[in-house]
Design a protein that fits this description.
The chain is of the alpha/beta class and about 500 residues long. It has helices at about 1-25, 60-70, 70-80, 85-90, 100, 105-120, 145-150, 220-225, 305-310, 315, 360-365, 420-430, 465-475, and strands at about 95, 130, 160-165, 185-195, 210-215, 235-240, 245-250, 255-260, 270, 280, 285-290, 300-305, 325-330, 345-350, 370-380, 410, 435-440, 485-490. Among the domains are: about 55-90; about 310-445 and about 455-500. α3 packs across α4 (about 85-90). The two termini are about 65 Å apart.
C-alpha cells in the first residue's frame, strides 16, 4: 500500500502541474481553476471529506508505465483496487513466475495459478518472461508449457528464461521463436531441457546473451543457432553433455565473453571470434584453440595439461592477457615459457599434484608487470619430513630473475616441500616491491572456530602436515622476510588441534 500512496501523490503532483500549465496558457479546460480562486487541497472539502482521484486525467500510456515499474505481486494487488491498473494488467510487461512470487510451492496449485494469470493476459507488451518450474514435479504441468510460451513470446519480448526440473524430459518448442517472435529477444536462458534448433530458426539476430545450463543440444544444433546470432555478446554453456565439438565462428564480431564449463563429452573447442575479452573454461581432456584472440584480457582455465598449453601457445596467441587463473590436473611440467606476457598483472595457479615449484620462477619472469600471484596446491602424497632434515645451504637458488612489480603473494595449502620453500625464498629475495606474503597451511580455508561453538572448525585432511608446514616456515622462511613485508601465516586452529607446534 505504500507504493500505491506514492503513486497517488505523484498523480496529485501531476494534476497540479497540469493546472499550472493551463493557467499559464489561458486554458478554459474544466481542470483549470477560475481566476482568483485558490487551489483547493483535499483537506479543504466540507465535512472532512477527501476528494477521490479517478485518474482519468492521466493518459493511458502513463498509467501503463507506472504499473510496469511495480513488482509483479504489487502490480497484481494494484489491479485489484484500481480500474486503470486493472486495464493495464492485461499488458503487464514483466511476467516472472516462481514459487516465491506466486506463493504456492507445489505442483497443481502453482500450475493453476500461472495458467489463470496467463489466460487473462493479452500477450501484448510482454518484455520479460521468466518461468521457474524447479520445484514443481507434476508431469501434467508441462502440458501447459507450449500454450504459455505462445501467449508470452510475442513480437517485442526481450528476455526469456525457462528453468525445468532435472528429472523430466522436456523439449523447448523452437517454433515459438520463429518469424518475428524471436527477432526482439536479447536474452535467452534455458535450464534442464532439450533444445534442438535447426537452420530454419534463423531469427535471433538481436540476441546478445545466450545461457544454456544442463541443456541437451549437439554441436551442430548450436552451430545452427549461432549462425543467426550476429549481435551475440555473451555465451555461457554449462553441463551441456551432448556437445563433443564446439566452434565459435568468426562472424560473432561482438562476442566478448565466452564460458564453457563441465561439458563432459567435449573434446575440441575452437574459437575464431576475434574480440573475446574474457574466457572461462573448465573441463577434462579437451583440445582448446583460442586462435589469435588479441583482445583477450582475462583467462580462467581448469583442465588437463593446461600448464603446457600456457607454456607453448598463450604467449603467442593471446599476448595482451592482464589476468590469468589456471588449474592443472595431473601434470608434471617445468614451466619455461620462451616469450613474455607483457601486460599480465594478476596470476592465479592451482596445481593438483606435486611438481617442482621452483620452475614457476620463469612464469614470474615472463610477466614483468605482475602485481599479484596466488598459488593453490592440492597434493596427493605425504611429504612430511621432506625438508626438516635438510641443511638450509642445500636449498637451490635461481639467479638472474627480478620481479620488481610484484606486491602481493599468497600460497594456499602450503606444505613442507623443499621446492616450495625454494620458490618462497626466491620471491622474498628478488621482489623489491613486495608488500604482503600470506602462507596458508590449512587447505586454503583458514576458518577457525569461536569460543561459543562446541564442534570443530573446518576439517583438515592432514593436520600433522599443516603443523610441519608451520615449523618449516618458522625455520626456513620467517628469517628472510624483510621489514617492509607483512608476513601472514595461517595456522591450524589450536583449540581443535591442540598439539603443541
Amino acid at each position: 500500500m505504500e507504493q500505491l500512496d506514492l503513486i497517488y501523490r505523484e498523480q496529485r503532483e501531476h494534476e497540479l502541474r497540469l493546472r499550472q500549465i493551463q493557467i499559464r496558457d489561458g486554458s478554459t479546460s474544466s481542470l483549470a481553476r477560475r481566476k482568483g480562486s485558490p487551489l483547493r487541497r483535499n483537506d479543504d472539502y466540507p465535512e472532512g471529506k477527501r476528494r477521490g482521484y479517478s485518474g482519468t486525467e492521466l493518459p493511458e500510456d502513463i498509467w501503463w508505465h507506472i504499473h510496469s515499474l511495480m513488482t509483479m505481486r504489487d502490480a497484481a494487488r494494484a489491479a485489484c483496487v484500481s480500474r486503470s491498473f486493472l486495464c493495464s494488467w492485461r499488458c503487464y510487461p514483466n511476467l516472472i513466475f516462481n514459487t516465491k512470487i506466486i506463493g504456492m510451492s507445489r505442483d497443481t496449485g502453482f500450475t493453476c495459478r500461472v495458467d489463470d494469470i496467463l489466460k487473462k493476459h493479452s500477450g501484448i507488451g510482454v518484455k520479460t518472461f521468466n518461468l521457474d518450474f524447479t520445484y514443481c514435479c507434476k508431469p501434467k504441468a508441462y502440458e501447459y508449457l507450449h500454450r504459455w510460451l505462445q501467449i508470452a513470446v510475442t513480437p517485442g519480448i526481450e528476455k526469456l528464461t525457462l528453468v525445468m526440473p532435472g528429472n523430466e524430459d522436456v523439449s523447448f518448442p523452437c517454433p515459438v521463436l520463429s518469424d518475428e517472435n524471436g527477432s526482439s529477444v536479447r536474452y535467452l536462458h534455458l535450464v534442464h531441457c532439450a533444445f534442438h534448433p535447426t537452420d530454419s530458426l534463423g531469427c535471433l539476430r538481436n540476441l546478445t546473451v545466450l545461457h544454456l545450463d544442463w541443456v541437451r543440444i549437439t554441436g551442430d544444433e548450436l552451430g545452427y543457432l549461432l549462425s543467426s546470432c550476429v549481435a551475440l555478446e555473451r555465451l555461457e554453456l554449462r553441463r551441456c553433455y551432448e556437445i563433443t565439438y564446439l566452434k565459435i565462428p568468426s562472424w560473432l564480431q561482438k562476442l566478448s565473453y565466452l564460458q564453457v564449463l563441465e561439458c563432459g563429452k567435449l573434446r575440441l573447442l575452437k574459437n575464431e571470434a576475434p574480440n573475446i575479452h574474457s574466457f572461462h573454461f573448465r573441463g577434462g581432456q579437451v583440445e582448446v584453440s583460442l586462435g589469435e584472440a588479441l583482445r583477450l584480457k582475462n583467462l580462467d582455465m581448469e583442465c588437463y595439461r593446461v600448464l603446457r598449453y600456457v607454456h607453448e601457445e598463450l604467449p603467442y596467441s593471446v599476448p595482451n592477457l592482464e589476468t590469468i587463473s589456471i588449474c592443472s590436473h595431473s601434470e608434471l611440467v617445468a614451466f619455461t615459457p620462451s616469450n613474455k606476457f607483457l601486460h599480465l598483472k594478476h596470476a592465479g595457479i592451482c596445481i593438483m599434484g606435486a611438481c617442482d615449484y621452483l620452475s614457476l620462477v620463469s612464469l614470474l619472469d615472463a610477466a614483468p608487470l605482475l602485481e599479484t600471484f596466488d598459488l593453490s596446491l592440492v597434493t596427493f602424497r605425504n611429504s612430511m619430513g621432506e625438508l626438516l632434515s635438510e641443511d638450509p645451504s642445500h636449498l637451490r637458488r635461481v639467479v638472474g630473475y627480478r620481479h620488481d612489480k610484484l606486491q602481493r603473494v599468497k600460497i594456499s595449502s602450503f606444505y613442507s616441500s623443499k621446492s616450495l620453500v625454494e620458490l618462497t625464498s626466491h620471491i622474498l629475495e628478488n621482489s623489491a616491491s613486495l608488500e604482503c606474503l600470506r602462507l596458508d597451511t590449512t587447505d586454503g580455508r583458514g576458518i577457525k572456530c569461536s569460543a561459543e561453538r562446541s564442534h570443530k572448525c573446518a576439517h583438515l585432511d592432514r593436520p600433522m602436515e599443516a603443523r610441519k608446514a608451520v615449523l618449516v616456515i618458522r625455520k626456513h622462511i620467517k628469517g628472510k622476510v624483510p621489514s617492509t613485508v607483512k608476513l601472514e601465516v595461517v595456522e591450524p586452529c589450536r583449540r581443535c588441534y591442540p598439539v603443541e607446534l
